[in-house]
Design brief:
Blueprint (H helix, E strand, L loop, with lengths): L1 H39 L7 H14 L12 H11 L1
Helix pairs in contact: 1-2, 1-3
Length: 85
Amino acid sequence: MSVHKEISKHSNKQNQLVQQFLRLDEKRESAIDEAVQLCSAGKPFTTERINQVTNEINVLARQGVVPQRKLVTSEMVEEYVGRLT
């Protein structure tokens, strides 16, 4: 019985990590979209918010359950916007 409890506990912890990752990843995508929109409009933007969330994701990823994400540079956003037009 204790093995079952330990497996359930481990599974629940992994599920919590995945759910937290999904929330953070959605937040990151929203920040990327905002930077892309600002860049497209020729307005100033930063990648600070994107990379703050990225760092939070990468802390979770070190626990081995969720994937890491790359940090984003302003040049990456500008290059992406350039490909859109």
